[in-house]
């Protein structure tokens, strides 16, 4: 069977918003997911933090497994952990559709990206805010997702760093044409436009979505801000 991967299919959509569950109501994840499904969301972003690679601790394998049981949304799992190679299989078995690892945790990621692919998940590579893009460029072609952090990894609700957009532009050129170019941190209606113009097509948004009263309306506002910026660039 030679069916197209879900990341390749999504790469043809110019603007995709992936809500980050880190800002969701953890006591009511099922209803949060249901609301996102109603709004036409296709991908949710799940932040895994180990208290070592980043100072914060969030969720692990059992939470991904529980989420998998109640939704068919694609689960985009962002591993902010040391030694991710020890855990990718468990996260895949729990239902992750993509597994993204940090170049700072795995400086030579070719083998691990291949392993993630062989497990049946989309392999992603992440560049933390502050890491030179040169660290990741040689491996860009092996990833289905290239994620640039626009805040230092570890916490939601931080301020967007516009200087990372230069890295995004370089990654867009180095990536396969059907790879997803993702950004994570501080995305809101004021910052999404510049990221879209730089070549991002999948936008992680935690605070911006979950602190809004109407998630669907807010996602539409985010998408419109991105499309407006793209249109303004063309005119
Ligand atoms: C931060 C996480 C993000 C976080 C984004 O390390 O990787 O996914 O949830 O949150 P906001 O959108 O609030 O910046
Ligand atoms: Zn994240």
Largest beta sheet: strand ordering: 1-8-7-6-5-4-3-2
Number of strands: 8
Q: Would you identify the CATH architecture?
A: Alpha-Beta Barrel
Give the overall form: globular
CATH class categorisation: Alpha Beta
List keywords for this structure.
eight-stranded parallel β-sheet; alpha/beta; binds zinc ion; single chain; binds D-xylitol-5-phosphate; TIM Barrel; 235 residues
How would you explain this protein's 3D organization?
This protein has 235 residues and is an alpha/beta fold. It has a single domain, classed as Aldolase class I (TIM Barrel), CATH 3.20.20. An 8-stranded parallel beta sheet has the order 1-8-7-6-5-4-3-2. Helix 3 runs parallel beside helix 4 and helix 7 crosses helix 9. The structure holds D-xylitol-5-phosphate (DX5) and zinc ion. Zinc ion binds next to strand 2.
List the helices and strands and how they pair.
Blueprint (H helix, E strand, L loop, with lengths): L5 H6 L4 E4 L9 H10 L4 E7 L11 H10 L3 E7 L7 H7 L3 E5 L7 H9 L3 E6 L17 E5 L15 H10 L5 E5 L7 H7 L3 E4 L1 H4 L4 H20 L1
Helix pairs in contact: 3-4, 7-9
This protein binds D-xylitol-5-phosphate and zinc ion.
Compact overview of the structure:
The protein has 235 residues and is an alpha/beta fold. Helices cover 35% and strands 18% of the residues. The protein has one domain (6-234): TIM Barrel.
